[in-house]
TrEMBL record:
This is Carbonyl reductase. GO terms for cellular component: membrane. Belongs to the short-chain dehydrogenases/reductases (SDR) family. GO terms for molecular function: oxidoreductase activity.
Amino acid sequence: MTNKVLITGANKGIGFESARQLGHKGWYILLGARNEERGLAAVQQLKNEGIANVEWVQIDLNDLASITNAAAYIRENHSDLNALINNAGISGDMHKRPLDFTLDELKAVTEVNVYGNFSMIKAFTPILSKNQGKILHVTLPGIGAGSFRPFAYMASKASLNSMIRNFGYDFKKNQISVDIFGVMPGGIQTDLNDHMTGWMMRTLPEGTKSIVDVLTDGKSHQGKILSRSGMAGSLTKHLLKQVNIFSKNK
């Protein structure tokens, strides 16, 4: 059976690189993107690289109707879907102090990173449960390390991480055959951070490999938030590790 994955926000960055790496491993790629032109361009780029089994699916995490329509399309045409990578997200202004944020700015980030991901879980769990599927969320610690403290981004991801843990507990308790978890791949150079460089940052292919490795490791990570090495542990332990590294290199 061919593995089949839906990836949100897959026309660029981590989402696109995940599609590329999994496509080269023989996975069928459902490339989720809001914009048709950019989505189809990304599909064509992958096909130019020899990845034949790839198609665009319109998904906008700000638009519940698009999520519902995508789920209906996949239920009808790709009922064997066995993986979902919830990658799409927005950061808000990563340099603003907390008090400088407006409520509308905080809401905008939360609506995508929390409500959008919640809607994706609700819509696709019935499909994935029939195939003992996986839902992987690309995330980060909900508490800053060193000088990296993007307020709205961290607040939304803290909520997302809590949601992942609670869904994992519920799925296990109620014997829902979906493995849901998060992966914190660490600093990756993307347009989200203006391709930031430095000792904490990895290239896009390097960072994305952490995500792909966890998805394909054949293990259950139910309700866990994993570090970039694939090791499970509390967010506190992960954060302390990052702070210690930062202190040594300061």
